[in-house]
């Protein structure tokens, strides 16, 4: 007599006319890459955990559907994108990507990453690690269309060296700073809301931030610290009494209106 045990497969992958099922998110991304699949949709069927392993989204075009589930990123794990990755949620319930671990960022984007759906990516503060929800590398592009990025630690929500387009959704830092714009560009438009307890936008020399609409809010400090170029075409920038809306340093350039 032999007792056969089976593990439940909780991730669905579709490409072309093929549908496959995998044990976890890690296996799904790895198998599709090893097969040379260039375009696929990966859907969570139940909550999953990434632990001490980096998932490399290297396939050219992946839609990652959280499907109302929660993806927990723990230990040294992270989700690393080097291709074209779109994170969505087709379910009516809110989806989550959460993290309690030792990694410096939950998601490292080195390709093109889009977040568009009823979902929240949150770095929790329960373990004392100052991790960021997103690191956006040089030449990478991050698009926030809908959804929320939240950092409950005192670290920045995003460390940017590439290009960021925020056309909707929200970026929130209730205990720390918002965006560290070390290089590249940031464009804010639509109904986007970016808020922080401290400095909301930290703009380094050689970088450009364009605000066409939306809201930039600091709860207790300067809204924008600027050593680069800030172009304001619209929107609302708010801070508290006693602090500057824009702390413009010697190298900083601020342009108001449609020109520039």
Spans with pLDDT under 50 lasting ≥5 residues? 1-6
- Head-to-tail CA distance between termini: 78 Å
**Shape designation:** elongated
Radius of gyration based on Cα positions: 19 Å
Helical stretch tally: 1
What percentage of the residues does DSSP assign to strands (E)? over 45%
**Whole-number mean pLDDT:** 92
The residue fraction in helices comes out at under 10%
Folded structure, characterized:
There is one protein chain. With 260 residues, the protein is mainly beta. The chain contains one helix and 28 strands. It has a 19-stranded mixed beta sheet that branches. It has a nine-stranded parallel beta sheet with strand order 5-8-11-13-15-18-21-24-27. A hairpin with a 2-residue loop joins strand 1 and strand 2.
Question: Keywords for this structure?
Answer:
260 residues; 52% strand; mainly beta; disordered N terminus; 4% helix
Entry summary:
By secondary structure, the protein is mainly beta. The protein is built from one helix and 28 strands. Mean pLDDT is 92; it is low at 1-6.
Please describe the topology of this protein:
Blueprint (H helix, E strand, L loop, with lengths): L10 E5 L2 E5 L2 H10 L4 E6 L3 E4 L2 E4 L3 E5 L4 E6 L2 E4 L2 E6 L5 E7 L3 E5 L2 E12 L8 E5 L4 E11 L6 E3 L2 E4 L3 E4 L5 E3 L3 E4 L4 E4 L4 E3 L4 E4 L3 E4 L5 E3 L2 E4 L3 E3 L7 E3 L4 E4 L4
Parallel strand pairs: 3-6, 4-7, 5-8, 6-9, 7-10, 8-11, 9-12, 10-12, 11-13, 12-14, 13-15, 14-16, 14-17, 15-18, 16-19, 17-20, 18-21, 19-22, 20-23, 21-24, 22-25, 23-26, 24-27, 25-28
Antiparallel strand pairs: 1-2, 1-3
